[in-house]
Design brief:
mainly alpha; about 0% strand; transmembrane helix
């Protein structure tokens, strides 16, 4: 497997985990078996992000910034989420919100930087 495939798989796994945890935790107060909604939501999100990264890095038609932004989101989310869980010792639900926020800012910054916005 080449590096393009590895990055696509990694980004897809992160997206699947984020969607799964977010949907499951947000719906748990109102739906008893919210994991059954979180699993398909995570699967769909993971497949969409992996496909976007895989096909975005393989073309020169302008979708490269989107693929790089999704990859930056995945990397920053993993580092922030792991750091908050292990380093700080907070729970998964508490660590989810700031991790998504930091990853969103990083992904947006990479996207805007590669698109040349602000020059």
């Amino acid at each position: 497997m080449n590096s393009r495939g590895i990055t696509a798989v990694a980004a897809g796994i992160v997206a699947a985990l984020v969607a799964f945890v977010a949907v499951t935790e947000l719906l748990s107060p109102s739906i008893e078996f919210s994991v059954f909604l979180g699993l398909p939501a995570g699967l769909v999100a993971g497949v969409v992000v992996a496909a976007a990264v895989l096909f975005g890095f393989g073309t020169d038609d302008g979708s490269r910034p989107l693929a790089a932004a999704l990859l930056a989101f995945a990397f920053v989310f993993l580092v922030a989420f792991g750091g908050l869980l292990i380093g700080v010792g907070v729970g998964a639900v508490v660590a989810l919100v700031p991790s998504i926020g930091m990853a969103t800012v990083a992904g947006l910054a990479v996207f805007l930087w590669l698109r040349g916005v602000g020059r």
